[in-house]
Each structure stands twice: as C-alpha cells, then as structure tokens.
Amino acid sequence: MRTISYMQAVAEALILEMRRDSDIYIAGEDVGKFGGSFGVTGPVYKEFGASRVLDTPISETAIIGTAVGAAAAGLRPVVEILFIDFLPIAGDELFNQAAKIHYMFGGQVSCPMVVRTAIGAGIGAAAHHSQSLEALVCHIPGLKTIAPSTPADAKGLLIAAIRDDNPVVFLEHKLLYASKSEVPEGDYVIPIGVADIKREGADVTLICYSAMVRQCLAAAEALAGEGISAEVLDLRTLIPLDKEAILASVAKTGRAVIVHEACLTGGFGGEIAAVIADRGFASLKGPIKRVAGPDTPVPFSPALESEFIVNADKIAAAVKTLF
After folding, report:
1. CATH homologous superfamily of domain 2-183?
2. Would the pTM of this model clear 0.90, i.e. be above it?
C-alpha cells in the first residue's frame, strides 16, 4: 500500500488494463500529449503513445459514436468527455445506441465501453462546466453508472468497468483529483454495485457518493461531538444500486439523510428515498431527509458557488432536525 492521488489512481488503472489487453484504447479531446484537461491521461500517453491514446475532434457525438462502433466490433474503448455538461450532446449515441444495442440485437452484440467524465462544482468553472447530471444517466436502462469517492475505489472500480461487457459511465469529481489515500499496488477489482460503509454509526445513516462522501465524513465527525453517531454509506455505484446495503444500514440506525451535490428536484436522491420508503419504511424513526444543491445553475461567483455546494454544516443541520 502506498499513498497516491485520485488522479494517479485513475491513470494507474488505465495503464494496467492497457498492458493486459491490447484491445483497449483511449480517445477524447486533448487526451494525448496534453494529457487531458485535468492531466489524468498524461502518464498513459507517455507509455502507449498516439496509437492507443487518440486525440479526437471537438465532437462528443464523434467520440462516443465511434466508441459504440468499435465496442460492437470487439474493441474496448475508454473515452473521455471533458465535462458531463457536454454528455447530452452525444445523447443519441450513448442513450439510444450504446445503452440499447445488446437488447436490440437480442444479446448477440455487446458494447464494452467506458465513458469517463468530470462532474461537480468548486473550481470556478461556472454554469456550463460544473453540473452533476448523474440522475440523467441513471435514468437510461442499459447504462451502468459509477461515482467513486476515494483513490482506491476509483482504481478498483475503473478496472471493473473496463472489464465489464456493458457500457459504463464513470464519474470523476473535479475536487477529488488531488485527494490522496492509500491504494493497493497492482491489479485488483472492486465489484460494481457494492456500496461501502466508510464510517460505522448507530443513530443515523448518511447516504452519499463521490465528493459528498468527504463532506458526510466531516459532518459525522462534528455530530459525534454532540453525541450523535452517524453512519456514512458510500454508494460508489449508482446503477446498479446496492439497495440491500441501504436498507440494512437504515434498519440499524432508523434514520436516513441522503446527500448529493446535484440539484434537489429530480436528483438521484429521490430514487434512494423511494427505495427506503417502499422497502424500509417500518425501520424509520423519522422522515427521510435530502440535502442537495439548489435548483439553480452553478454560479461563477466564488461566494455564490460556495453557497451552492453542499457542505458538512448543511448536512449536520439536516441531521439534527431528526432528533
């Protein structure tokens, strides 16, 4: 075990998989010599060069459209869409083709491709480059959606995603790239669809994913000083959703607070709340709470952007309303 960054963990997963399987290639805008907008693919290009790390035109439809064809023909593309804000541009290619091709061809064709994309606010990138649109992706049958919060989870889940025979959307929060933690060396896989308890607790379950895991852990630490024991459940994968882990944790604590950075209305937290209400209602000692971003575009102003983003104080305040 050694300590590396989230960015390094993602790059390491890509390098290990490309060494293992020559059918894997990377494509996207400036992913080659420039290394991508966040520098993730720089080390990959250094080892594999332009023959397997391909710079593309500025066209999301071309990036994902060619990946669908390549995957159907037997390759395993890992393509990068710089910001999830631009993913809807390739909505037909991803939502109507990649997600449905296995079903439409009666299981005779698979589409083993990964779409890596950045989500979230916090870097002053304004409304067009700061959204969290995971709920949009999760609504499409046939797509798997992963949103890891730690470097170790990012590496193990990305390896799993690349090896999966289905299209996977892999969400990387911009604020996590520089975060560091211990990551196992070599090859390992974290199963897709398995949540992880990041902190044990007895009084309330904080259900979260991606960058909000860090905020929930900070909130749990603050709440502990006030005598409230909060469990932090990191979903890691949104589709497939680990419903049993959610229900087991809520059954233990009796209270649920769902946290995500995306706007409240239509956010993925509503789906989680529905699962608890449908199958875990008898366990609840109070209402299900959601803590989410406001229903506004992400502001450019640093002060307003800071107010937009969910933080530990807002989470702790929501928890206290349940006692």
Report:
1. Thiamin diphosphate (ThDP)-binding fold, Pyr/PP domains (3.40.50.970)
2. yes
